[in-house]
Amino acid sequence: xxxxxxxxxxxxxxxxxxxxxxxxxxxxxxxxxxxxxxxxxxxxxxxxxxxxxxxxxxxxxxxxxxxxxxxxxxxxxxxxxxxxxxxxxxxxxxxxxxxxxxxxxxxxxxxxxxxxxxxxxxxxxxxxxxxxxxxxxxxxxxxxxxxxxxxxxxxxxxxxxxxxxxxxxxxxxxxxxxxxxxxxxxxxxxxxxxxx
Length: 196
Description:
Distance between the termini: 38 Å
Shape: elongated
Structural class: mainly alpha
Number of strands: 2
Order of helices and strands: HHEEHHHHHH
Number of helices: 8
Helix content: 55-70%
Strand order of the largest sheet: 1-2
């Protein structure tokens, strides 16, 4: 029997010093954790901030300290995340397909977090889904753009009479995330460019 026929090819590569595959999978897994937090924060912070009557600076973060009665009604019987997600759906920031994707993404991210060891070393485990990761970031950008276009701009007199395209809106946090992705996957991007 040849050594290439043995199970544990991922582990064998790791032990032989071929770290590219496992390094890439670890970077994808870490981006799942980061983009999950970004999507959750985008959903929760926008809606919570909308219902805030007062703010306070705590440990360098501006946090809502007094939330309206409408917000408490919105939360009734739901988690903060689900209530905020439903609010965005009700007002057209997201679709039912987006909601289905959010549930799927959160479940998959949980699997990645809890099964990372096996995902890295078990040959029977599939590669991490990079497309889902990009889709989650795109959804977060979609929500931010919708919020800015439909909530922030109409309530800011500096933008009266100015038409802003959704494509022109690039939230700062997503500029940072895009740069983080470029840094994390630069070797993959360089390799794909060299093949073109």
